[in-house]
Amino acid sequence: MEGATRVFMKLGFEAASMNDITREAGVSKGTIYVYFQNKEDLFVAMVEQERAAFLATVRSVLSTNGNVEKSLYDFGVSFLSHMTEEKIITAMRTVLGVRERMPDLCRRFFRGPENLRTVMRDFLALHVEAGRLNIDDIELAAGQYIDLVSGGYFKVRLFGSMEDAPSDEEIHRTIQGAVRVFMAAYGCHNKPVIDNGADSA
To answer: Could you tell me which of 174, 184, 171, 122 has the C-alpha nearest to residue 148?
Structure first.
């Protein structure tokens, strides 16, 4: 798996071959075919492994602190640092490059049964129940916080408009601002300004 990951990250899915992977991994083709039928299977396994590892990390970050703001901050730093590093940007580009060939993979990667949004949603629901947050639409709030902590950096990195990942100082500034905005909207001291649109007029 490590050898396949290095090859896919270096050559991309289309250019990579099973021969490249066997050479990089230092194993025979026969060994690989015991576990994987083709490079598509290897690629799917690689993506799922990376996705599962990241979700486990952010889930752990959110569960290690009872303080909502600290947990949101730690999550944001972990998310933004991870999503803008070169390895992840390359992996995302590779996944998007096989979208037409492997549409199910892309759907699972971004919107699988357990993804970043569901992890954040479960965290928010826990703190709403405990009375620490005041949120009517938890699904919406989960997406809003993920958008806030991305700070726009992920998209500009993905499309090549920003060559290097943001600095630690910039990540700190971005996440502090995201937590401040989110808590201003959903802190337990706040009440909804508009109730289902009834007062919007």
So the answer is: 174
Strand partners, 133: 187
Determine, yes or no, domain membership for 135. yes
Q: Could you tell me the pTM of the whole model?
A: 0.74
Instruction: Report residue 30 as tokens.
Output: 């026969």
84 CB contacts (<8 Å, ≥6 apart)? Answer: 153, 154, 157, 165, 166
Say how many CA atoms lie within 13 Å of 32 toward its Cβ. Answer: 25
Residue 136 maps to a domain:
yes
At 197, the pLDDT band (50, 70, 90 cuts) reads very low
Count how many domains the chain has: 1
Q: For residue 187, which phi and psi values (nearest 5 degrees)?
A: -60, 150
Tally of CA atoms within 13 A in the half-sphere of 201 that contains its CB? 1
pLDDT per position as a tens digit, 40-84: 888 888 878 887 888 888 888 888 667 899 999 999 999 898 888
CATH of the domain at 110: 1.10.357.10
Q: At what angle do helices 86-97 and 39-63 cross, to 10 degrees?
A: 130
Is the CB of residue 147 less than 8 Å from the CB of residue 117? no
Residue 101: inside a domain: yes
> Domain range spanning residue 60?
51-186
DSSP 71: H
Whether 131 is covered by a domain: the verdict is yes
Cβ–Cβ under 8 Å, residues 68 and 135 = no
Which tokens belong to 81? Answer: 């640092």
